[in-house]
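Dear colleagues,

I hope this message finds you well. In preparation for our joint manuscript, I am sending the Large ribosomal subunit protein uL11m (Minutocellus polymorphus) sequence together with its predicted structure, so that both groups work from identical material. I would be grateful if you could confirm receipt.
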Amino acid sequence: MSLVRHVKLRVPAGAARPGPAIGQALGPLGINMADFCKQFNDRTETMGYEKETPLTVQLSALTDRSFVFDVRSPPTSYLVKKAAGVDKGPESPNADAPVGFITPEAVYEIAKVKNADQHRWHLPLDGVARSVIGTARSIGIRVKESED
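The corresponding structure tokens are as follows:
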């Protein structure tokens, strides 16, 4: 039993269904899509994520057609937009007018969520927070103390 390939997927929490999006990634590897969806939905339900929250999944396919997977936190841009109460970023890139604002406390909370991922345990929290601020800036959201 050895590794065939790693696959990275973006799947909504608690709402994975066997379909084209998952099928195109898992079908060529011989992985049972219904089995993956059931295991994924069960795991995300126990993790406490809101239904339909997009999650990144790192799946490792093995030669005996079995698999193991790691569920990671939602994308930073999703968390920033949710904290700012914004549905989408600016119409044009590098727009001068911000589309929303978040507080430093929100940045800290997002950084804590991102830092909980297994592949980020070694990164300092302030470095992850700076990355969150950079992502926010790139989607037109600014960080400021209060909304005045």
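For the figure legend, we might mention the following. The chain has a mean pLDDT of 88. Helices lie at 20-26, 33-47, 76-84, 104-115, 125-138.

With kind regards,
E.M.
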